[in-house]
Write a structure and sequence with these properties.
Length: 303
């Protein structure tokens, strides 16, 4: 049994939504189940109503059962290994591949592929996410660091936490971004009306994205983005927030577009970190994948 103690920072949020936002990988449905089972208390009193409205300063405690042990099967799926040693791997994930298993999707993931390649992976994130230090979306391609032992995992996770690792992306966004560069410093939380989305919300978690224009096409712009923090969907939310959603983004982008593409045009191009054992700074750069280059050429032709 794991117990989480959480403090509410904004008024009016629903209890189930708050738990869904605050605890990684806790679905809203499962949060509601725990509430109904009397596993959640607010200011020391058990609450069984999922729509209970919280106030700033409320103390929420939730008892989480230990996760079900699942048999994640190694699968012979080709993956591009950019670098590997006894501590870390760097993988270039293709667009369309899910990073780790989740309910309803236990095969065909990057984790299944990595487990076929090596049995040496960190166990900190449990059986569903062995070795996974950070994630990128299914339809985002690019570089990921994988920890092969717990020492390496802790060291890499600490670099993400203190913003000392480097993660740089390339994206194609709607519209003509007028500024050559800029910084988006806007907190992110679960969308107040649509739980499938995140949004810029006052009182949300700190989120900072730096952007640099690489090329303008008139109706679209190629941008380079550097993450200072790493919130879920951060780049997608931030670029939509400033009026330039990612091309192909069916969640945060427009319903109609002159250029059609399935999945957001977002590629994790550069990755840098200090090696957990040697202390050496390592940096990796990946080429834009074929699907990305093809869209650029199409835009140049049409626009």
């Amino acid at each position: 049994m794991r117990v989480y103690d959480l403090e509410v920072t904004i008024d009016g949020v629903r209890l189930d939504g708050f738990l869904n936002e605050q605890i990684e990988d806790l679905s809203r449905n499962y949060a509601q189940k725990l509430i109904e089972e009397g596993k959640v208390s607010v200011n020391g009193m058990i609450i069984v109503k999922k729509n209970h409205k919280l106030k700033a300063g409320d103390q929420v405690e939730i008892e989480m059962p230990e996760p079900e042990v699942l048999d994640i099967v190694p699968e012979d799926i080709p993956i591009e290994i950019v670098y590997e040693d006894d501590d870390v791997m760097v993988i270039n994930k293709p667009q369309g591949m899910v990073v780790h298993p989740a309910p309803g999707n236990y095969s065909g993931t990057l984790v299944n592929a990595i487990m076929y390649h090596t049995a040496n992976l960190s166990s900190i994130n449990g059986v569903i996410r062995p070795g996974i230090v950070h994630r990128i979306d299914k339809n985002t391609s690019g570089l990921l660091m994988i920890a092969k032992n717990n020492k390496a995992h802790n060291a890499l996770a600490e670099q993400l936490k203190d913003h000392s690792s480097m993660r740089e992306y390339m994206a194609i966004v709607h519209g003509n971004v007028k500024e050559d560069s800029g910084t988006i410093d806007a907190p992110i939380a679960r969308h107040p009306q649509n739980r499938l989305k995140n949004a810029v919300v006052a009182g949300g978690r700190e989120a900072v994205t730096h952007f640099f224009v690489e090329e303008r096409f008139g109706q679209f712009t190629l941008v380079r983005l550097r993450l200072e923090t790493g919130r879920t969907h951060q780049i997608r939310v931030h670029m939509a927030y400033i009026g330039h959603p990612l091309l192909g983004d069916d969640v945060y982008g427009p319903k109609k577009s002159k250029i059609k593409h399935e999945g957001q045009l977002l590629h994790a191009k550069k990755l840098g970190f200090v090696h957990p054992t040697t202390g050496e700074y390592m940096e990796f750069d990946s080429e834009l994948p074929d699907y990305f280059e093809a869209v650029i050429q199409k835009i140049r032709h049409i626009c």
